[in-house]
Design goal:
CATH architecture: 3-Layer(aba) Sandwich
Number of helices: 9
Distance between the termini: 22 Å
Largest sheet: 7 strands, mixed
Strand content: 5-15%
Shape: globular
Number of strands: 7
């Protein structure tokens, strides 16, 4: 019962605060849109907005590692996906990118509207025309110097085992001849499991930015081999970080 009460209070705070925070986002957009063509300022405000919801939940202790692996480059960023919390955790890294996200998220009042202000990229799963438009929007963002962030599993996994990676992110990297930046996220599944919005107690979370994979390392690989290579790299680090959390008595 206590966990449900905490969850209700927390979700109510998100719903109420998002209206106020969206008004600030709208003001930032109005002021900056004419000189900040990549919406760099608005995105970093969105990183703060998302981080606020983690900072105000002391039960979620997020450790960010490997930020020194982020260079002044344009990337296709890929990570595993276990929980809705992965989105907030990725924002906590505080670097510039455009999300690729399912269309339903863009319809959420205030939060989804802010995603549209940021020109994040929507996708309707299974819709061929939407997939074509998504690739076109990603290519445009990359050519303007913005990284794109994709969950190549396509949906949240229910276990620590990564689903097979879809090919889209890896097509983008090969087509644009830009590096892949892998991110390994551990601990979010336990903090907020799939299909649950209940509070689940204290859980540490680790997000590790791994070294980039330069174009030269995958230029001659098939898309399938390339996707499997990146999946194995992320999976190895997810398991490593889970092992560390378990050794420290967190699970």
């Amino acid at each position: 019962m206590l966990n449900r009460i905490i969850s209700y209070i927390y979700l109510s705070f998100i719903a109420i605060s998002s209206a106020f925070l969206f008004l600030i986002a709208l003001l930032i957009w109005i002021i900056s849109v004419f000189f900040d063509k990549r919406l760099f300022i608005l995105h970093f405000y969105s990183c703060f907005w998302a981080s606020l919801y983690i900072w105000l939940m002391p039960a979620w202790s997020v450790t960010i590692r490997g930020k020194n692996n982020i260079k002044k480059k344009t990337y296709v960023v890929v990570s595993n996906h276990q929980s809705l919390l992965d989105i907030l955790v990725a924002f906590r890294i505080f670097f510039h990118f455009k999300w690729v996200s399912k269309e339903e998220i863009f319809k959420i009042p205030f939060i989804g509207w802010n995603m549209r202000l940021n020109r994040y990229i929507s996708l309707v799963r299974g819709d061929r025309n939407s997939i074509i438009k998504m690739f076109d929007d990603c290519n445009k963002a990359i050519k303007k110097g913005s990284s794109v962030y994709i969950f190549p599993e396509g949906t949240r996994s229910r276990t620590r085992e990564l689903k097979q990676f879809k090919n889209g992110a890896f097509h983008l990297a090969q087509e644009n001849k830009i590096p892949i930046l892998p991110v390994a996220i551990s601990g979010t599944r336990e903090a907020l499991p799939k299909y649950s919005l209940n509070f689940h107690g204290k859980h540490p979370i680790i997000a590790e930015v791994l070294p980039e994979i330069p174009y030269e390392n995958f230029a001659d690989l098939s898309i399938e081999d390339f996707a499997n290579m990146v999946r194995n790299i992320i999976s190895k680090n997810v398991n490593k970080n889970y092992q560390e959390l378990e050794n420290n008595g967190h699970f």
